[in-house]
Amino acid sequence: MKTKFLLLILILCGFLTLSGISTLFNTPASAAPALQLTDFPTPTAGPDGRIIYIVQAGDTLWRISAISGVSLDELRILNNLSADDVIGEGQQILLGFGNRTEPTQDPNAAPTAIPAGFTPTPTAGPSSGTVCVLLFEDVNGDAIREETEFGILNGAINLASQVGGFTQTGESTDATEVDEFGDIVPVRTCFLDIPAGKYTISVAAPDGYNPTTFLNYDFELQGGDESFLDFGAQISTAELEANPPPEEGGRSPTMGIVGGLFILSGVGLAVYVFLFSGRQRVVRADE
Question: What's the pLDDT score for residue 110?
Fold first, then answer.
């Protein structure tokens, strides 16, 4: 009786064991949940032209690079990041630069009302300019002013509008000044605040000078312009004969005569001293 009971228990346990193993192998394995990534919103350029992406949860710099097409190195350079830096949710990542967006006007917006009787004042540019004239002594007569050729005194200058109604006159000068580079330059006769327009400048050389350039010139003056005009004249032959220039080196014949007299006086003084000293020696020898 006991043997049958034990055998029944063993059969029951074997059945339960086989049922458990069958259940274990027939139960389908649950698949691992797929990795869920946050959506990658397409960034657009802002008003300043910068393309900004806001870091989402689970983002990495590698993922942003893979989806945006911007290399890791470029992302690090644009955002001043090192290889060890970690980005966080909500952080702004600069992806690059696009075109600046201009604000669009609302077609339904009402136009700004202009008060009655209001006339806009246009912004005008300069309406006048400056004309500076130089009458220079053309020493070599080549009609080109050299650095060593300066102004002539008392030349007449006339500035007249070609349409009439405006005329200004002046005189040339032989004054000089030092420019910003330390060079000595001639002083020009300048006409200031001349209205824009077409003009004729005329120059007359003083007595004793012959012109080496045209002394009349037509030109157009624009607002804000500074026009510099040069005219040349050379001293006449008659003036040279009447008033010859100093000899080379700046020494005139009169100065040469005076210098010769000084030399003769020095020689005479030296002879006198020599003779006087010799006479004293003779007197002392006689004594």
Answer: 63
